[in-house]
Amino acid sequence: MAFGNFIIGTVAALFASKAAAVDNGLAITPQMGWDNWNALGCDVSEDLLLQTAELIVDYGLKDLGYHYVILDDCWSSGRDASKNNSLIADATKFPNGMATVADRLHALGLGFGMYSDAGKYTCGGYAGSLGFETVDANTFASWGVDYLKYDNCFNMGQAGNQQISSVRWVPTLITTSAKCKLTTNKICNNGKCAQCYWKTDLIFSLTGADAWNCGLPGFHCSVTNIMNKASFIVSKAQPGAWNDLDMLEVGNGAMTDAEYVAHFSMWAAAKSPLIMGNDIRTIAPADLSILSNAAVIAVNQDPSGSSAARRWIYGINGSDTFNGPSIQLWSGTLESTTGGSQSDMVVLLINGAGESMIMNASLADIFVDNGPQGTAAQVKMSWEVRDLWANRMSTDEAAAIIAASSGVGNVTKGYNATTVGAGRYNATKTSYADGLAANNSLLLGNVTITVQPSGTVTATVDPHGVAMFRLRALPTAVRKRDEL
Asked: Does residue 413 form part of some domain?
């Protein structure tokens, strides 16, 4: 949640009506930023936030759209009875206070994210907001908070269903909205997904402590499990109310590079908020290159606001260290970049097997929403296929950016410390919507082939990897570049 233009991330609904939340001009595209929880848990401090914020700027991540620096749980030392029971920031962890942190982040051009809980306690056992909703909203507003992640632990039986937790915030947000800038709100659901059917005017999280019965973290247990759950609710995502698949795990270990790429690609295509969850201070070059792919981010930030949907999933017998590998096809509508009436499409071929596979997606399957069994008009058209990972930043360039920003070591491999990374996309100067409308090459990927009418998109996909494409409509008379 953000106050004043304050974004809330909770498991409850924040506004009295869909019109009040979805049509208020906020969260038109999924929010982007960083949250400390996945990598660092309760190890939080003022220094952590400010050091991370400076690196987000130095590494060019702010320019790519990563805007919110979100402080998660474990930051408070209770309530001050002499000040209307207001929450108190831990003075050891935050010696200069939260307002100073907010000021420093705002001076860097970033937003300040805060965490609270709809229960008596937060999930980490700290003071929650149950019964103090108005007090806490005013406190966050006075600190200059821009975004609130709002959990639903320890609700003392006052949950009933997820709507009850949200209704407690409705009058609070209405009365404080003039004082604070609410830009987005994320409600953490702790495994209960009923609210995605009763409420469509908020951003909610699909994950929680009991969400996935996940004994082993990693690709199959975490990433594909969340994808499978999300596949049933893709229609609920819309501008102002996104399906939050939880923070990104890129850079946190337990996955291969191909798995990180698949993870980032799917979160982007599903229109999940892209909230980095790694320790930016120790980021590896390969991970920075994944998080910096503007062509994939452009899919996430596409102005159409349409989530990709799963078209098919098949179990396979390929060798794997996990049980039940599968292959999947996802596709979804994007804003047209050709100037015509025909929308672009994003296509993802996902290989859950333990070895590389040649995968195929027919135009009939890709456009099944437009007509069953190949009857869609789009199946009879030619399509330019663009690989969205073909121009991934090299690890050498990413390493040079890290070295240039840290001031440690020499920037080698022919990169100049003052210009390295200068050619990347800057969404703070040109929005993704405007860049796509202008056919900015950094957002469109590399042309690979042309698929002719009734044709097939084919790709060799790495183990636990993804092939991700943007399809653009071509005139019917276009000559074959290469028919798949």
From this structure: no
